[in-house]
Amino acid sequence: MKQYKLFFLALTLFLFNCKDSQNDSINVSIKDRNKIEKYRPQFHFTPKEKWMNDPNGLVYFKNNYHLFYQYYPDSTVWGPMHWGHAKSKDLLTWEHRPVALYPDDLGYIFSGSAIIDKENTAGFGENAMVAIYTYHDPFKEKAGQIDYQTQGIAYSLDEGETWTKYQDNPVIKNPGIRDFRDPKVSWFEEKEIWQMVLVAKDEVQFYESKNLKDWKKISTFRFNDQPPLGVWECPDLFKLPVDGIDEEKWVLIISHGGNSSPNGGSGTRYFVGDYDGTTFTTNQKESQWIDYGTDNYAGVTFNNEPNGKRVFIGWMSNWNYATTTPTEKWRSAMTLPRELKLIKSEGKYLVKSQLIVTFNNILKEVSENDVIGNIPLDFEYKELQQSIISFEAVINDKLDLQFSNTLGDAYKMSYNKTSGDFYTDRTKSGKVDFNKSFLKSSVQKMNIGSKNKIKIDIVLDASSIEIFINNGEYVMTNQIFPEENFNRFNIQKNEGLEVKNFTIKKIKSRL
Ligand code: FRU
């Protein structure tokens, strides 16, 4: 009898346990699931699920940063575009919000911007959030017409939660140009007027309006590219003070599709020049790129950022392989937000991309007990995959460093002082053969000049590496898909190389 009792007690405990673990797995919250999904970035923005591309409608309003984005909620590859929506207090922890804009009779909702209409110039209401975007009509496109892209507007009176499309859309009709899109609108203080930059094939067009509904074209900007770069996309225009001197300049950002970027595929360049309220001019002779890596595209900056700052976010992918990256539930992340600064060095203006100051708030000291080996030259740290490594290197000849894991996957970086070239190599960084173009752009290069000393910050997240040289004078962003997390870092010893002020910090998950 006693044995029976014991048997039943054991059986009940066993069943109870099974039920419990079943419940546990059912109860694993989305938050926890995201934490264990392979390749899910822990402190970069990703959609909960499905396809994402360009950041759209970046605007700061009532203590929140709003990030809208090109979104296809039915698949993990590009399709009929919507605007997804998320908001954040610090640009690092994001709250997902309902889809903001759905396709309608006029077409898909392509990229664009958002402003806050403080003075109610459009008549939608005081402080209305107004989105200005491109309509892409897939039926007209299929029918072989070329006028299938027009500009439309919509407004929200509840901080981007719900939206009403303007009844007389489009507000700008197509003038007979196939690629006519991606309006970025901002308030031009000097003329007290709304201004828009828009790409039209291989030029930027400038428009202005008093009410966001009636737009007048005021000028165009072209650059004599030989050979021409791929299709012009996602422009942005803003003023920045030049660091350390009493001068202000205008920056025009433009993304290029095709294979125009320095290391292949799509990329984003900028022009520094002057803008008189009508026309943009520049003395720049060559292309300068916001990021020399292959994984920062279609980036633009926030409207209404407090404290006169300019914060930029890009789509951390490349049209050459974006739809085939080895993630399952969702596709694509945004880059880290970066504060843009303008400097003048050897007579040349450079736009720097710096880590935002509040990034420090999510860093955590690494205890020595958690590290095995010899910092900085060769050590193991099991949370390397969410970390930032920073140091200064005094260089005699070259610098070679790498991340690796126990399977032998490695991501290499090197700098050759004589040529001034900084290289990254993801050839053996894990999954690389999911797309020929990804493989083709395995080795990437940027020329940072011949320097005795460089400062370097490397930010590693689940499936990305962002390298900032000299506080973001030169940047490289790469996606990577190691088979298991990197856990080892090393710098190769060589004559005359000195590594100073080395730090490694853990980056806390924001999911
Ligand atoms: C840039 C882009 C934009 C367009 C959008 C469509 O990546 O091609 O020009 O508006 O993506 O999703």
Topology:
Elements: H1 2-27, H2 30-36, E1 50-61, E2 64-72, E3 82-88, E4 94-101, E5 108-117, E6 128-136, H3 138-142, E7 149-156, E8 164-165, E9 180-188, E10 193-200, E11 203-209, E12 216-221, E13 232-241, E14 248-256, E15 267-275, E16 280-281, E17 288-289, E18 297-301, E19 311-315, E20 330-331, E21 338-345, E22 348-355, E23 363-365, E24 371-374, E25 378-381, E26 387-394, E27 398-404, E28 410-416, E29 421-425, H4 436-440, E30 443-447, E31 453-461, E32 464-469, E33 474-479, E34 488-491, E35 498-507
Parallel strand pairs: 1-20
Antiparallel strand pairs: 1-2, 2-3, 3-4, 5-6, 6-7, 7-8, 9-10, 10-11, 11-12, 13-14, 14-15, 15-16, 15-17, 18-19, 19-21, 21-22, 23-35, 24-25, 25-34, 26-31, 26-35, 27-28, 27-34, 28-29, 29-30, 31-32, 32-33
Beta-D-fructofuranose (FRU) binds at residues 53-54, 70, 81, 110-111, 134, 181-182, 233-234, 298.
